[in-house]
Fold:
Amino acid sequence: MAPGGRAVREFFLSPTHAWRAFIGDPSEGLSAIWEGFLTNIWMFIVCEVLVLIFGLAIAVVRMSSSPILTPLRFLSTVYTDFFRGIPVILVLFAVGYGVPGMDLGWISQQSPTVYACISLTITYSAYVAEVYRAGINSVATNQLVAARAIGLRQGATMRYVVLPQAVRNVIPPLLNDFISLQKDTALVSTLGIVDATQAAHIYGSLNFNFAGYTVASLLFLLLTIPMTRLTDRLINRDRVKRLAFIS
Amino acid sequence: MIELHNVHKQFDQRTVLHGVTLELQPHEVVCLLGTSGSGKSTLLRCINLLDRIDQGDIIFQGQSLLDDRIDVDLVRRHIGIVFQAFNLFPHLNVLDNITLGPQRALGRPKHEVESEARELLGRIGLGTRSGDYPDQLSGGQQQRVAIARALAMQPDVLLLDEVTSALDPTLVGEVLDLLSDLALQGTTMLIATHEMQFARDVAHRVALLDAGRLVEVAPAQQFFDSPSQPETVDFLSRVPKTQ
Ligand SMILES: Nc1ncnc2c1ncn2[C@@H]1O[C@H](COP(=O)(O)OP(=O)(O)OP(=O)(O)O)[C@@H](O)[C@H]1O
Ligand SMILES: [Mg+2]
Structure:
């Protein structure tokens, strides 16, 4: 075997190091990667729920035709353009370091975890709003006409006819965004939060061994691969349905 | 019930309806004939306020529908329309397709509208299919559900736009039979159709639209047996004789 291969095995794949990194060692100040990973998971879950709600609200405002909502509609357009165009990590820095430094009373006294969740939610709501918007647009106009023809008002049409169909259409792209969100929870380590990435990093720098990175990667894969497969299955199912419809 | 006075409709610069005048009496069935592109769908959509007319007036139960104070959604609850392409709600089962309007537009209680919907389904011969989704039904069944969905609003008048044109020929009969039943029960209907035999059998009066002009309106038998306008003669000579 090439000498490089040995090094890779030793640095990245050593089972002893991997296990120690995984379970941590409080006596040496080593956080367990699995514990860090729990942070990733719950942050992901909290953000996902918030993102689903905010994203929908933004999309619905952006697509409303009511004149009272015009200022809000403008704001939501600016919002989505802005946050879809900025790297998540900059938002994390701005919120995670900027807000505490601004001396805004209780707003500036939250934990890094709160700022991390806010940053991820802000960014991903912009992505997801666009996904919802595409979904709403994908509902055929004849559905709108049919709803108006039985006298449903605009709000009821949205709620009972458009959104249920839109949500169905957007599940695969939403899952895609959630896979990204799951991975991007790793970025919260930049705010000093000890997630799986940070725990692996600490282990690596103290032991000069990177098996922890491998462990953290595997944990992320464990989370994202089922989601990826599910997304593919849903996309495929829709495609089969459409094909059946065409023939 | 409905009076159209000199209705004009333009799309961009093109005039699609040139001064259509027609009156529909309660319990009357009028069939609207005309070649493709003559403006049948446009006329029906205008009556249901899905399209705005540019000139003329539409009077519904003594009230002008062009009045700005008119609540469009409210008007649509009284004027049912069924489309060529069914347009059922694919995410709702048959029963929910029918009850959505009465429940969410009229705000009527669920148990009440559901029992009415089941009765309607029985009448259209789909009593056992209430839990099925639209894509589990044949075209003819879907169209019957679409008609039931419109009827569930208990409209004063029903507009039907070539409701059998998208159907397999073997399924046309069941939908026409349903319309005949409705006619016998006194439902007021304006029916755009290409089905000559049906028009002759069911309509009280038949009207011909030719390039946006209503060239002839006459009792069914007179319309087919002794048309008075050259356009009608021409139109009838070009459609294959049914029978
Ligand atoms: N939304 C629209 N924009 C522009 N032109 C339109 C629109 N809807 C209809 N038209 C035009 O108006 C004319 C009448 O169309 P309409 O659909 O009313 O005809 P029709 O009699 O229903 O025909 P068919 O038997 O094919 O259904 C056509 O020339 C059509 O191209
Ligand atoms: Mg038409």
Remarks:
- The CA atoms of residues 58 and 64 of chain B lie 6 Å apart.
- The two ends of chain B are 33 Å apart (CA to CA).
- The pocket of magnesium ion (ligand 2) is lined by residues B 40-41, 161-162 (CB under 6 Å).
